[in-house]
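input
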Amino acid sequence: MLYRNLGKWGLKVSEIALGSWVTDLSGTAAEQTARETVNAAFDAGVNFFDCADAYSGGAAERFLGKVLGEHARNEYVVSTKVFFPAGRGANDWGLSRKHIIEQLDRSLKNMKLDYVDLYFCHRFDPTTPIEETMQTLSDMVAAGKILYYGVSEWSPVQITEALHIIKENGLRPLSVIQPQYNMADRYIEDEIIGICEQNGVGITPFSPLAQGLLTGKYRKGEPLPAGSRATWQADRQINNLLTEENLGKVERLIPIAAELGVPMSVLALAWILRQKQVSSVITGASKASQLLSNVRASGFTIPQDVLGEIEKILNYHPFVRKIG
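output
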């Protein structure tokens, strides 16, 4: 496993991280599988574990805290997020000072931690001034409850405004962003990567395999694999990605991965890691074998001529899409 700095900052994170978004905690057997996956990640050198207060209604935080608690605190970097509703009250969501402080304390209690290494604003809150949010996050760093903070799905304008307010008011710096980024969704290349380079902000992308599209298990003209995410996911994100165009690209990428001697998923992860501003790639894994496959992407370099071939296949053109 290789490690990279979080942007220009001193924190080192593993090139491959383990996320908790799709962690199945629906029973004893499922929880045991999740535990084995986390421990396999540790054994493989993964030191960055990502979570959120909204995942499984707080159960994901409690589970991760329990498993991470079996390891020394200096051995891992853990993140969580705030924004989505945590209750039915008017102040039980968003990025107000009240909600951030209350929810951060709840997350720390869930994970049995004194501090989190990274804390993200999950989405942008149009009902709260950015000044209030940035001041609160800076205060929580000063209080020792957060070491580094950042945002997830924010637009370039929102990120730029936050950076300006931080500089203008002498606040603790915004150190990291966690956007969606993969071969099928490259919007951050248009402006956000440049903003991060100029300000020393690290990037830890989520959904690097496009909900499973880039694993190669969904094939053009073939039925959906039994038990795959496309057969049960409530919001149908993966189903919306299974277009003829996307599946056609995957069909052309699979032989390239085979020629390089790696699974399609490793090719997709290594392709993201070609970006120097990317600090770590947040992957999901429903079992240890998937995690162990993903970590092969760390240190795997795609030859320049192959990158050129991939670029022709992806045929990316800048576009505008809704963020968040």
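quick obs: The chain has eleven helices and ten strands.
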